[in-house]
Design goal:
The chain has 172 residues and is α/β, with parallel strands linked by helices. Helix content is 31%, strand content 16%. The protein is built from five helices and six strands. The chain has a six-stranded mixed beta sheet with strand order 1-3-2-4-6-5, with helices on one face.
Length: 172
């Protein structure tokens, strides 16, 4: 058994002793500090910088980073579902205390498609009604899709199907 497999076996044994989630990090992996933009918004590690995305911005509000299952769901949705490289999209975390507007986000990130996880039009200062899971044209050039949080989408198969159908409509 090589070193990694023996560590994996040790992790499996440790799960019997702990109720919390345990993560095994290979030695070549390193933790990454999330880069901040000038407004304090956090870009998730492994996702694009503001300069390389194609105007496709996924946004969620929260003071915590995505957990491993949410990151996996997002990654799979982009690479396997939409068949896009991760560096062509941006995943942006807006801290709960921050006030943001649609106009500022659209301008700063040159957004042509915005997908909101667990956010409403009100959260972005929009007066236009944005129903969940309905692609809506906002401000002429930008498509907006409001969805449940990634956590809720990951847990509920019916919501996941509804979200996927909406994404397919947005990207056709």
């Amino acid at each position: 058994m090589d070193g990694f497999n023996s560590l994996l076996a040790d992790k499996n044994a440790l799960t019997l002793l702990y109720e919390d989630k345990l993560y095994l990090i290979k030695s070549e992996q390193q933790t990454q500090k999330l880069p901040d933009d000038d407004k304090g918004h956090k870009m998730e590690p492994g996702i694009s910088s503001p300069d390389s995305h194609k105007g496709i911005v996924f946004i969620y509000r929260g003071d915590e980073e995505l957990d491993q299952s949410e990151q996996q769901l997002f990654s799979d949705m982009i690479t396997k579902g939409l068949k896009l490289p991760l560096n062509e999209v941006m995943l942006l975390r807006i801290p709960l205390a921050d006030a943001v507007t649609f106009e500022k986000l659209k301008e700063k990130y040159q957004a042509v498609k915005m997908i909101l996880f667990g956010m409403s039009a009100d959260d972005l200062g929009l007066t236009q009604l944005i129903p969940k899971y309905k692609v809506t044209q906002v401000d002429g050039l930008c498509k907006l899709l409001a969805a449940d949080s990634l956590e809720k989408i990951a847990r509920d198969l019916n919501i996941k199907k509804q979200f996927w159908a909406s994404l397919q409509e947005m990207f056709k």
